[in-house]
Design goal:
Number of helices: 10
Helix content: 40-55%
CATH architecture: 3-Layer(aba) Sandwich
């Protein structure tokens, strides 16, 4: 009968084996992180401590803008509706198409559209004539679905053609987990027909913020359009409260539907560094200010991580 090995000897060997395995995992982790970053088109993440505290969301992402690393994420690749963040793609298509001085008449159909569906509105008045640039202001500052309706109709031409262009653009930008069923984020034909992921939305935001006209519009807390022979006067206030509450905030877009919850795609710059991030389905959903609170916490944490990182020599 073989001798039974003392328990303490087995325990000692188990500890040694465990230590070796852990050491191997720790040694491999930078390489694994680098592979993951390469797959996403980003450099390896900074060495960082923990995560931003008290951020409760269905999905989130925080990135050092441009070619910088991903700092933190939550459910990065989970598809979710994003409400009016959809309008970032609408604006991007219009800006890339050009002709922002073209005049577009406000149709009765556009006014009825927002009234019938209780959509967010810029309060446009039927018969007024505005330029495409002015309609971008009306769409991005107060999140006017009436302005989005008019831009999609003009630049499709026709809304169905415009939505097709949105999906073609999404694929061209590498947004492989994104689909648009409408031009403004309204929940049709279902609550989940238009969707994206935190990773895709940050990429979309980065692309849009490369255009000076887009950056200028989304950075505004408000916009006043004086009356003229062509249109009434309009005063629009931004839906993005981060602009007023966070030093260095640059934009960019809010979103809100029953299924999407409260969402925010945001960017801020401090001490020469720019961070871009997104919050999807912030909890609690009954608190509209939650995305701004969480974005502030994410940004404070992210800038802190960058400041604490050792200098590259």
């Amino acid at each position: 009968m073989p001798r039974r090995r003392p328990v303490r000897t087995l325990t000692r060997r188990l500890i040694v084996v465990t230590a070796v395995v852990l050491a191997a995992m720790l040694a491999a982790s930078p390489a694994l992180a680098a592979l993951a970053s390469a797959a996403s088109g980003r450099p390896a993440a900074l060495a960082r401590s923990g995560a931003p505290a008290d951020v409760y969301a269905g999905g989130a992402d925080l990135v050092d803008a441009g070619t910088g690393p991903r700092l933190w994420s939550q459910d990065l690749s989970v598809r979710r509706p994003m409400g009016s963040i959809t309008k970032v793609m609408t604006a991007l298509l219009v800006i890339r198409a050009g002709g922002l001085n073209r005049e577009i008449r406000v149709s009765t159909a556009a006014v009825r559209y927002v009234s019938k569906d209780d959509a967010s509105s810029a309060g446009l008045i039927a018969g007024d004539v505005l330029t495409a640039r002015q309609l971008l202001e009306a769409m991005l500052v107060p999140s006017g679905c009436d302005a989005a309706y008019l831009l999609a109709t003009a630049y499709g031409p026709g809304r169905a053609a415009f939505v097709r262009k949105m999906n073609v653009m999404a694929q061209a930008l590498g947004l492989t987990s994104t689909h648009f069923s409408g031009f403004d984020g309204m929940p049709y034909p279902t609550e989940y027909s238009t969707y994206s992921t935190p990773a895709d939305l940050v990429r979309l935001g980065e692309d849009a913020m490369r255009y000076p006209v887009f950056r200028a519009i989304v950075a505004q807390r408000g916009y006043y359009l004086p009356g003229s022979a062509l249109h009434h006067s309009y005063a629009w206030q931004t839906t993005n409260d981060l602009l007023a509450s966070y030093r260095g905030a640059l934009g960019i877009k809010t979103g809100d539907t029953l299924a999407a919850g409260n969402c925010l795609l945001f960017e801020a710059r401090r001490d020469g560094r720019t961070l871009i991030g997104v919050i999807l389905h912030a909890n609690p959903t009954t608190l509209p200010s939650a995305p701004v609170t969480y974005a502030s916490r994410m940004l404070n944490w992210g800038f802190g991580q960058i400041a604490a990182a050792p200098a590259v020599r």
